[in-house]
Design a protein that fits this description.
The protein has about 80 residues and is mainly alpha-helical. Helix content is about 65%, strand content about 0%. It has helices spanning about 1-10, 15-30, 35-60.
């Protein structure tokens, strides 16, 4: 987690970075693997990408008095920079 924050300070990760990463990962899994375990790997990858994005938003806004809503139904309203 600490390493990720250091990297984020050097290169501000954007939503597009995570989209590219998950796209390449999904394509690789689809090319090399089939079945339930492949789908589970993709689902976990999406979960990791979402978690890192949310933690990045939180780190950026932790000193603000107002935090973005993180309810599962409202994730589309977040902006990642």
């Amino acid at each position: 987690m600490k390493t990720r924050m250091i990297v984020h300070q050097l290169h501000k990760l954007k939503k597009e970075d995570f989209q590219i990463w998950t796209k390449f990962f999904f394509e690789t899994v689809d090319k090399l693997f089939k079945g339930d375990k492949a789908e589970l790997a993709k689902m976990r990858t999406q979960s990791v990408a979402t978690s890192i994005q949310l933690n990045t938003v939180y780190e950026k806004n932790r000193n603000n008095t107002e935090m973005p809503s993180l309810s599962p139904l409202n994730l589309n309203n977040l902006t990642f920079t």
